[in-house]
Amino acid sequence: DAKTTQPPSMDCAEGRAANLPCNHSTISGNEYVYWYRQIHSQGPQYIIHGLKNNETNEMASLIITEDRKSSTLILPHATLRDTAVYYCIVRVGNTGNQFYFGTGTSLTVIP
Amino acid sequence: GAVVSQHPSWVICKSGTSVKIECRSLDFQATTMFWYRQFPKQSLMLMATSNEGSKATYEQGVEKDKFLINHASLTLSTLTVTSAHPEDSSFYICSAGASGGSGRSEQFFGPGTRLTVL
Q: In this predicted model, what pLDDT tens digit does every residue of A15-30 receive, in sequence order?
């Protein structure tokens, strides 16, 4: 079962930072926080993941609170192509473990 | 990143026929692959875990005799929808894991297969 809670939808102006929150209050000590996004009728695309430290890559930044009960995905300069459904998932960092998707956040970037 | 492909990308079939969907990891080996189903405007639902060389593990409520999974090699898993009916029409997506450093792993998803049963 999904262990995360996300707002169902958000809007963001093009060029501005998009901040997508996720609550995972029951996260275990060995569970990572993963973020994926899905553009309409495509497979999910990996964005970023982390355990407890903040992470940054070419796509986004991941901010994890000190108690690890919530996190925020930041798209620093949103473009129209970032319009998608964003999923926050918690999972033990092992290739053999399943991903259970929640309902995600539908982000719309507005021109 | 690693690439996962699916074939076909879309398929239309008549009710009562069987359809096979292939999932391949193109540049890495995957002992475990996963199959998901997604209905319109809904999230991905995990159907089963495909294990190379052994039987698949199905999620509760998923009929193993209807959704046959074969994982014969480290780069190929197949999902066969047997005796398909219109309610099986959906978007089927597979994924495979690849290990990163320090025990971290990423899950790479295929582009999905759109199944329409008439």
A: 999 999 999 999 988 8
